[in-house]
């Protein structure tokens, strides 16, 4: 599924580079759109601002969402996604360094499909990204309304 787009919502430049490197190292060659804050992620998904010309019928296969973001945090992004018909069924994986039980509870309560804690060690991070790619890009079947035209 090389044509399936991944939306990475990550404000930390080091984590962004690490994630992109891990995807490449695992031969996940999908296009990756990076949003650096919660508002930019929503602008991309809903075709607003600098993304006003984007064909919003083309949705990402999966969203990798950090929690600690400027402008709108990951929970606010998740709330907005789940409250809109166009995005409520998109697969969202919270990919965060937070191991707080309350963050996990809030994430799942707001409709996250998965919660993955970023491993600190690079080798473990690469393996985690490999497993994410295998599941969300190959095995998982997205909901019909979330399919691209």
Quickly list its features.
149 residues; alpha/beta; Rossmann fold; 5 helices; 14% strand
Q: What is the topology?
A:
Blueprint: E1 6-9, H1 13-25, E2 32-35, H2 38-46, E3 62-65, H3 74-82, E4 92-96, H4 101-109, E5 114-117, H5 122-139
Parallel strand pairs: 1-2, 1-3, 3-4, 4-5
Helix pairs in contact: 1-5, 2-3
Word description of this protein:
The chain is of the alpha/beta class. The chain has one domain: Rossmann fold, CATH 3.40.50.2300. The chain is 39% helix and 14% strand. The chain contains five helices and five strands, in the order E-H-E-H-E-H-E-H-E-H. Strands 2-1-3-4-5 form a five-stranded parallel β-sheet, sandwiched between helices. Helix 3 links the parallel strand 3 and strand 4. Helix 1 packs across helix 5 and helix 2 runs parallel beside helix 3. It is globular and about 35 Å long.
In terms of structural class, how would the helical and strand content be classed? alpha/beta
Stretches with pLDDT under 50, minimum 5 residues: none
> What is the succession of H and E elements?
EHEHEHEHEH
Assign the CATH topology.
Rossmann fold
Helix content: 25-40%
Ends distance? 15 Å
Shape: globular
Strand fraction equals: 5-15%
Our count of helices gives 5
Average pLDDT, rounded to a whole number, is 91
**Strand order in space, largest sheet:** 2-1-3-4-5
By CATH, the superfamily comes out as Response regulator
């Amino acid at each position: 599924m090389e044509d399936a787009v991944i939306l990475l919502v990550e404000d930390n430049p080091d984590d962004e580079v690490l994630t992109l490197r891990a995807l490449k190292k695992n031969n996940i060659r999908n296009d990756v759109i990076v949003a650096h804050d919660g508002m930019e992620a929503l602008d991309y998904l809903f075709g607003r601002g600098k993304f006003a010309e984007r064909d919003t019928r083309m949705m990402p296969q999966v969203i990798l969402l950090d929690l600690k973001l400027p402008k709108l945090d990951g929970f606010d992004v998740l709330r907005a996604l789940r409250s809109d018909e166009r995005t409520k069924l998109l697969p969202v994986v919270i990919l965060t360094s937070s191991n707080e039980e309350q963050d996990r509870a809030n994430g799942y309560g707001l409709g996250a499909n998965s919660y993955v804690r970023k491993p600190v060690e690079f080798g473990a991070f690469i393996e985690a990204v490999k497993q994410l790619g295998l599941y969300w890009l190959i095995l998982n079947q997205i909901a019909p309304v979330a399919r691209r035209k």
